Amino acid sequence: MKSVVIEQPGELVLAERPQPQPAPDEVRVRVTFASICGSDVHIWHGHNPFAQYPRVIGHEFFGVIDAVGADVDASRIGERVAVDPVVSCGHCYPCSVGRPNVCKTLQVIGVHRDGGFSEYAVAPAQNAHRLPATIPDKLASLVEPFTIAANITAFLKPQADDIALIYGAGPMGLTAIQVLKGVYGVRQVLVVDRLPERLALAQENGADRVFNNSEFPLAAQLEGVQPTLIIDAACHPAILAEAAALASPAARIGLLGFSGEPCSITQQALTSKELSLFTSRLNSNRFPQVIDWMEQGLIQPEKLVTHYFPLAEIVRAMTLFEKDPRTCCKVILQMD
Ligand code: NAI
Ligand code: MN
Ligand code: ZN
């Protein structure tokens, strides 16, 4: 089978590899569509501290179960599934409190284990989520990025009368907009980015007001409006201090970033307004919820997609995704 392998940082090859066999509790998926995420590019360039090499990348993928391990019900063969990349132990402290996404021995498919930019991939049977026929194959890999928004909003508990502010209108910001509007019915969703093309996408994805902070600081443009719920989906370490300064008293702030650089902020900036900070990593069993949202039409994955490429054009696809955020948002690979 053909697989996208990062042999070592900087070295991406489309390699011929043996088909994986499912372990007793696993299924094998014949992958048909997979989407590119910033973390795939980071693994390629050696910028993901969790990655181990060589690695078949890809953690956003969809396909059909074509083989099952000895302990898995064989009737699952033929099921259309989206695969949750979070593999957890099930018994450590975070697992015991429903947070397998930060399992002490967390393994992420496509990062710590071989992933879905491949004609076949294996995963624990419980990670393969059956999809209703109403979710088309070519959009099904987008369940995973929406689970990020599902996870952070579960902490933030959005209300219809919140004034929400989202930093960044990349895939993460756009999924957050859609979930705030379509699922939680938040009436005012404000979005800030530096690229006008991304802000246009934000509007297409439901943003009520957009702001470009490339020339003028956001504070001046908000004219005193104080957001009550803020999501940092741009993830520059300087954003937290700005968000705290702009926030309403009693606001909630959600952080998604993984920067190793310190954020500089005073206790006073947080405590004087009694701000709540939440961080969110990957997702804790949120595939069923997002699949349900898609089935109900509360979110529109097609609004994120700008390109489809065949697997053979992986380098072109990843390069475009990386270098051209003005024309590119979600890029989907087609395997066959
Ligand atoms: P992206 O790079 O496509 O989007 C980021 C957007 O933020 C861009 O449109 C950029 O122009 C904008 N931006 C950058 N600095 C800004 C600033 N100071 N003010 C306003 N806008 C600014 O990335 P993507 O895929 O949307 O991911 C966003 C972040 O989320 C990344 O840092 C990524 O590491 C993180 N992430 C976190 C996850 C988690 O589970 N915690 C999961 C996936 C991504
Ligand atoms: Mn992703
Ligand atoms: Zn665990």
Molecular structure report:
The protein has 336 residues and is an alpha/beta fold. It contains ten helices and 18 strands. The strands form four sheets. Strands 3, 5, 6, 9, 10, 17 and 18 form a seven-stranded mixed sheet that branches. A six-stranded parallel sheet has the order 13-12-11-14-15-16, with helices on both faces. Strands 2-1-4 form a three-stranded antiparallel sheet, covered by helices on one side. Bound molecules: 1,4-dihydronicotinamide adenine dinucleotide (NAI), manganese (II) ion and zinc ion. Residues 38, 148, 167-173, 192-195, 198, 213, 233-236, 239, 256-258, 280-282, 325 line the site of 1,4-dihydronicotinamide adenine dinucleotide.
Largest sheet: 7 strands, mixed
Question: Which oligomeric state applies?
Answer: single chain
The overall strand count is 18
- What average pLDDT do the residues reach? 98
Morphology? globular
Order of helices and strands: EEEHEEEEHEEEHEHEHEHEHEHEHEHE
Helix content: 25-40%
Low-confidence runs = none
Which band does the percent of strand residues land in?
A: 25-35%
Q: Which ligands are bound?
A: 1,4-dihydronicotinamide adenine dinucleotide, manganese (II) ion, zinc ion
Any idea what the radius of gyration is? 20 Å
Structural class: alpha/beta
Q: What is the count of DSSP helices, taking H or I runs of 4+ residues? A: 10
Termini, distance in Å? 11 Å
